[in-house]
Structures are given as C-alpha cells and as structure tokens.
Amino acid sequence: xxxxxxxxxKFKPSADESSVRDVCDHMLSLKDKCIRLTSQxxxxxxxxxGKDNSPEGMQNGFTHAFVxxxxxxxxxxxxxxxxxxxxxxxxxxxxxxxxxxILDYTPGKY
Length: 110
Fold this sequence. Notes:
Layout: E1 3-11, H1 17-33, E2 44-51, E3 64-70, H2 73-81, H3 84-92, E4 97-105
Helix pairs in contact: 1-3
C-alpha cells in the first residue's frame, strides 16, 4: 500500500532566492536520484512541491511544501535512513533551513 511523505520547510531569512530555488529543485530531483540498491532503479513513485500560496495564514512560518509518494513503508524507511542521495540532500540544508516538519501517512488509514 502506498505511503505519502509530506515535508515542509521554513527557510532562514538569510537564504537568498537562488539558494531556496536550488533546494526546491534538489528536493524534487530526488525522485530520479534515489536508487534502490537491489534493483538499481528509482523507487519514489511521485514527488511534487512548491511555495505556499494559502490565504489562510496558518503556515506558522513554513513557506515550501513537498509531497513524496512511496510504494511501501520499507521504501520510505530506506529513503529516510539509508539512501545516500537523500542523506546528502539533508546535509545540504545546513545554514539554509530554519525548521522542517514532516508528516507521513498511509491513505485510508485513520
């Protein structure tokens, strides 16, 4: 069963527009860069994201959001704990991101 991984970022005020765009492009490129060691193929089903444009005013400082879909919890766990491309991406956020919020769910499970 599919698993949805939602990531939100708060960028530091010192992060310039070009750096923010690079982070966003890098985050979305993980769909093709994250490779399962056993199959040597990408395993992220889909990835979308962008800058907040909600008029509700409930963002709590988060400005960008991304939704990544995995086929299984096992794929998500590999991504979070072992995938070298993802781990390198996480390190690249140092100095740019002031906060992150992550929420995962399985569609239809309440």
